[in-house]
Amino acid sequence: MRLKRHESLMSNLPTVPVWHQGNSARTTYRVAPQNIERVICHRLKNDIEQYLIRWRSEDKSRPLLSWHSLDVLAECLAHVQVYLSKVTSRLHVHDGVSTSETTSRSVSRKRKSPGAEPGSLWWGQPLNKEKHGLDVVISAISSSASERSSTPSSGIESSDVFNCSFEKRAGYLVAKPVKDLTKLSLPTRQMKDEAKNTPMTQAEHAIRQRFLEMLKESPGICLENNVDSTTPSLNFQFIDGYVFNEGVQPLGDEFVVGCEKPCKPHMGGNCGCEYTAKCACLEFAAVDEDTLARKGGQEHEEYQRLKEENGGMQPMTTPGLNPPKRFPYKKGVAGVPNTLQPFYLEQRFPIYECNLKCNCGPICKSRLVQKGRQVWLTIFKTPDRGWGVRTNENLIRGEFIDVYLGEVLTNGEAQRREERARKSGKDKASYLYALDKFIGDDPGLDENTCHVVDGEYMGNVTRFMNHSCEPNCRQYTVSLNKNDIWVYNVAFFAYRDIAMGEELTFDYLDQDEQEEDEVLRMRQEEALDPNNNEKKSCNCGASKCRGYLWT
Known about the structure:
This is SET domain-containing protein. Keywords: Chromosome, Metal-binding, Methyltransferase, S-adenosyl-L-methionine, Transferase, Zinc. The protein is of the alpha/beta class. Among the domains are: 18-235, no CATH class; 520-551, no CATH class. The chain is built from 11 helices and 27 strands. The strands form 9 sheets. A 5-stranded mixed beta sheet has the order 6-21-22-20-13. A 4-stranded antiparallel beta sheet has the order 3-4-5-8. Helix 1 (77-94) crosses helix 5. It is elongated and about 95 Å long.
């Protein structure tokens, strides 16, 4: 959850825990992140990096500022990271070099559901793991980084504070305004010049270490950067399920309906549900039209009539009929994982899994996504597309990878967040997923009322997956409650065999595959359109690249 921001430093004392360094009797007083507005400068003092922070204060004309080392700012590294990113971006622009992640992302759109120097920086190591027992092992950082241990605390001197003084009260640092206000405009030119020549290696190391600690909460993921010395944002929180925002509430358990007898755990050679015609979880599943057509007869004729009445689309219900359907997954054997049936993989029908009220038991083959990710992945830095994700093991076509997680918002709140991003001048990358798969199934569900998943600040590893116009993964709708058309899982499956070390990608617009000649023609037309001059170029590198994101 995000930390609550206090409007006034003076009316809300910083809740800073006392921290003892080793066995030393010396105590370091930390700063609470909610009491900081931002970091505005940095310097090197006695070989220790220090950062000038601007405290939150009601009087904006007389800000309270002070210098602190990284151990005092240990809980505020996200603020330090934002400052570091801005400084790096300015230096890149000044040097005539294209900026990295801070400016590489582009316009916001809702997705449709379905070391000190650049070098080899590697965290994490391969695991000897069982498929259903992932663990995470974090190895040592690079030798140069591991030598930089936590920096000792430095005392606060009078030259380190501006417009305020500090009291150490019951283990807390408390900033208080002083009468003789400093008239300097901070940071001064001298401070800025010093900052230009001062590396931030200690901060980079501390930020990396903090992100590695975050990864421990999400087993089976490691981090690699062979491009530069950056780290994914510390403002991101790894979660293991949806976080429902105000105005969003999933249907309660009383609305969940599971399959009953004859479904039972040990049917079909211990595979669980066996009869598609009798499994209640498949009530709204897609009809196997090819099989129905081969059977022919009155049932096929009646189904065709219902389909015509539904505008040529498969009818949601088939009263009086019991057309053939298919279970979503193929049971794996001899260490091969369960995979998504081609019937669903190719045609993108909603997938209905068995649930907590089902009679089939936990080993049922129709339980896959609900068991979570079972593959080892790496978050890695790309040269031109920010962070990406690749697999550390071979994946087979139809294999489940992971779901997309985040805050579930009302459509109105999602639009407000996009608007705030535009007003602030940010090139906010789109982490918004519209849960719009079932639009049309209910009069109250449309593009303006469907919920939206925002994975920018809360989510999981899939948040770092990049776009490709010719992806190796696809996203699918997976429901654990057939009666809930508002909230469901967005799950990623391998669309083809994927080799170990290959980047995992998906199409942000979730478009159907096109012929290469047609894509080339469209790309040439897009390049000649002056309205596309401000659009973000697509760097996916695929032969079927459309040229721009969001086109």
